[in-house]
């Protein structure tokens, strides 16, 4: 064996206790962190399989769906996005992709990498997706198989009308593919009532679980399309016809990959907390914390990127006053207050900050700290 | 909002304390579990980025490499496998795939899904990969761009000669793609000395970290091949030209996906433990625990699937005596002793058990418990 440099100086990493008010990961409750570190058991252990069955029930409640296909992909939200596209889209198929921020563009990239053709519907960053433009795009492309859009754009804080977009898609016999990474648990998302077909989310936003998992739910229509594919799914890891055998409650579980056991404990715990609080109460809490933050920010002279009607309570993008050294302000908040807020992303980089009020992070004390610290640092 | 069934009866999940002696996940030390539940900080926090730089150093030590491209993929080992194939293989390219167990077959599936052509080298389950057969396959297919093989087959417990296979591959100007999921940290794996090109592993085997991460290292030659691709990588999530921007130590980090922050704390801690013990000491511990287990199992009348010369110390596949109700024995061990051993996989299902001695699980007390419990349950 060659004598390789042994990194002797490296010790255990002890992170500080931050208050996380960026675009995610969000603050995590002590209960969820405790669940995370419970003893690891085997991923085929009968007790673990029972836990996964409960997790499916809890996810169905969070998504408000009875979809049999409701699972957590063993990877972050961007893998949840890719799961929906690689399974649903076959080479040559057209997809209407709505782009009003970073994640709409990422959807386009996914469509193209699947060999699909993306029909772009562009809206301004900060504006919601225009339902009319979607209808025009479908009228011009009646052979489109799906409409893909972001319910809650994490890069801008804009909320789009998922129910209306999905309704238009259905009129043209197209499936809806919905990015609910930032919406799930923070604002109403009614998968069955709105008849959404493929919806993915992330663990680290309004569910306040550790990052690394992506809840996904597929309607019967979406599952049917997967089962009728003529070409194989290009990804083995994300092929849901294989994964379903692992998550299925009936009969013998077939081994697909090793589930991220401890992260799933944490997701289970965060969903139990959501169920105990109640979905509607959680949505109301996000709204009420947003109202307090909004009043305080406006008093400090800040203005919002998104106009009031389509503003997300859980992701507040505000313009940075001219002449501000924005990186220094964020650095001061982090170093002097252990408070993280988010930088702007994409076309809002350097122009806006993003203040998250997500899940366990949407608490009165967080809002007060944020307002006071911003006031102190900016003066 | 429709009034959906709220799963009121579901409470926090409290797993028991098991002794994990299956094929993984392996026993996790209290230190690693503690690291896992440290406060979550942002994935772009300067302190987190510093932690990731240390993680790269620690992974380089574990892999015995100076490869600049040494990271942890934010998903389980099967995604690490897919990462290597989707980045390295372009449609139409030939890959020699060695198949002597479940994971060689999975490699073949990956090649096909990338549009590549798999040239199969079959060896019996339980036997190591035949270097001669690899050479014959390369002689017959001198245009093959890579040779893919499993260093330590988790489904059988066979160790193949990675150094010799890689040497043959080089003679034919083919890259080596190596599954080191079960070997990393358990037996010698010298990435640079053996000139391996693309090596992936898993967090939940001999590193004794939680499942859900896949360490990957790529040689300069492998990175060159990726940079010269003519077709885009079919996966956005696993496209390493995008991921590298996030893991790169130089300049500004670009956002790709949200890293699984807490799981990376745990991987860091498990690698610090490996570094503190020393790689060679860890290998010797696995060997010595295997020796004790072997003597005990043979006294109980068990015989090994793999012959002595290519037997992995960390994964012991033993034949189940005829007439044994194998599921009942595993069930009794789990329920009465909180001890997990693994079932057979693929063609060994129902015929063999797999006893893992991996990482923190390779301890004297575990071996004693396993031998005594097996003796009691079998009588």
TrEMBL record, chains A, B:
GO terms for molecular function: transaminase activity. Its cofactor is pyridoxal 5'-phosphate. Residues 43-345 form the Aminotransferase class V domain. It comes from the Bacteria. Pfam families: Aminotran_5. Keywords: Aminotransferase, Pyridoxal phosphate, Transferase. PROSITE patterns: AA_TRANSFER_CLASS_5. Belongs to the class-V pyridoxal-phosphate-dependent aminotransferase family. This is Alanine--glyoxylate aminotransferase family protein. It comes from Vibrio gallaecicus.
């Amino acid at each position: 064996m060659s004598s390789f440099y042994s990194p002797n100086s490296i010790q255990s990493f002890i992170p500080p206790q931050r208050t996380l008010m960026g675009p995610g990961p969000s603050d995590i409750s002590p209960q969820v962190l405790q669940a995370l570190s419970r003893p690891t058991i085997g991923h085929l252990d009968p007790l673990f399989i029972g836990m996964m069955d409960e997790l499916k029930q809890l996810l169905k409640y969070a998504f408000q769906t009875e979809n049999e296909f409701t699972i957590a992909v063993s990877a972050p939200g961007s893998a949840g996005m890719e799961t929906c596209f690689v399974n649903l889209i076959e080479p040559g198929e057209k997809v209407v992709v709505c782009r009003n921020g970073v994640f709409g563009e990422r959807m386009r990239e996914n469509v193209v990498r699947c060999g699909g053709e993306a029909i772009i519907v562009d809206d301004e960053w900060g504006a919601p997706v225009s339902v009319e433009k979607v209808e025009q795009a479908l009228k011009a492309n009646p052979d489109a198989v799906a409409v893909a859009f972001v319910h809650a754009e994490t890069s801008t804080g804009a909320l789009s009308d998922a129910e209306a977009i999905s309704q238009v898609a259905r009129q043209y016999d197209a499936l809806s593919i919905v990015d609910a990474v930032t919406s799930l648990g923070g604002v109403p998302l009614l998968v069955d009532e709105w008849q959404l077909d493929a919806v993915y989310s992330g663990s680290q936003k309004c569910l306040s679980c550790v990052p690394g998992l992506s809840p996904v739910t597929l309607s019967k229509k979406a599952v049917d399309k997967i089962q009728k594919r003529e070409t194989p799914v290009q990804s083995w890891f994300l092929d849901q016809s294989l994964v379903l055998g692992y998550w299925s409650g009936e009969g013998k579980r077939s081994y697909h990959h090793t589930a991220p056991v401890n992260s799933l404990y944490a997701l289970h715990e965060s969903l139990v907390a959501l169920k105990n609080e109640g979905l509607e109460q959680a949505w109301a809490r996000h709204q009420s914390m947003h109202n307090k933050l909004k009043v305080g920010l406006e008093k400090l002279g800040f203005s919002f990127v998104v106009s009031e009607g389509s503003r997300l309570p859980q992701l507040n993008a505000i313009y940075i006053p001219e002449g501000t050294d924005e990186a220094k302000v964020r650095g001061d908040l982090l170093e002097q207050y252990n408070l993280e807020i988010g930088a702007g992303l994409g076309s809002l980089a350097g122009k806006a900050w993003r203040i998250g009020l997500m899940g366990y992070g949407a608490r009165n004390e967080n809002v007060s700290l944020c307002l006071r610290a911003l006031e102190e640092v900016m003066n």
